[in-house]
Every structure is written in C-alpha cells, then in structure tokens.
Amino acid sequence: MARKPKKERNAEQVVRQQRVREAARQKRRPSRDDIARMFLWQMIVGLQGNRSDARAVLDKMRDEIVEGLERQGFDVRQSEDVFEALVEKYNDRLFPFRPKWHLNPADGPSPP
C-alpha cells in the first residue's frame, strides 16, 4: 500500500489530536504539563515554608533542572532566570494557576 501524502497525514493527525484533547477534556484528565506545573509549585512552596535550608535546597533543585534543560539545548542563564522568576512568583504561597473553567461544572469543586 502506498504511503499517503504528507499533507493528508498531517490533516489526519490534526483530527486525531483534536479527538484526543476533547476526550481528555471530557474525562477532566490533566496533561503532563499540568502535573509538572503543580509539582514544581508544590516543591517550591513546600520548601519555603518548612525548611531552614530552603534556599540551599532550591539552589540545588535549580541547578539540577537547569542542567537537564541545558542538555536539551536551552541557554543556562535564561533557564536560571525562568526558574528564579517562578520561585519569586510562588513566594507569596498563593495558588497561581488560573481556573480551568471548561473542567469545572457549575456544581463542581473550586480551586483552593
């Protein structure tokens, strides 16, 4: 069987991906990025509130994350800046994420 043209394969992929996203939305299934954002926020907020060596631990975490990003090709200084901006943003310990209104039914739970 002959391979489909690239344009046709790409168009079919768009349709498949839309179905996958819609199914995830209906199931209220978080994405990998949703989990990663929540995990990083929990780590930063948890460290700041519970440890006397929080800055040292955050620095070590930053160094390890930046090292991984550098292996992917990201700029070290830019990666450090983004990490530190997140630490600063999360410093007030307030829940920083916008509600996912498409996931919250009228009678469903609200964010913390």
Q: What does the model show?
A:
The protein is mainly α and 112 residues long. The protein has a domain at 31-95. Helix content is 67%, strand content 0%. It has helices spanning 6-27, 32-50, 54-72, 76-90. Helix 2 (32-50) runs antiparallel to helix 3 (54-72) and helix 3 (54-72) crosses helix 4.
Summarize this structure as a short list of keywords or feature phrases.
112 residues; mainly alpha; 67% helix; 0% strand
Summary of the model, kept short:
With 112 residues, this protein is mainly alpha-helical. It has helices spanning 6-27, 32-50, 54-72, 76-90.
* Order of SSEs: HHHH
Strand content: under 5%
Cα-to-Cα separation, first versus last residue? 54 Å
Sketch the major β-sheet: none
Uncertain regions spanning at least 5 consecutive residues: none
Helix content: 55-70%
Our Rg estimate from Cα atoms comes to: 20 Å
Biased composition (Basic and acidic residues): 19-31
Region (Disordered): 1-31
SSE topology sketch:
Layout (H helix, E strand, L loop, with lengths): L5 H22 L4 H19 L3 H19 L3 H15 L22
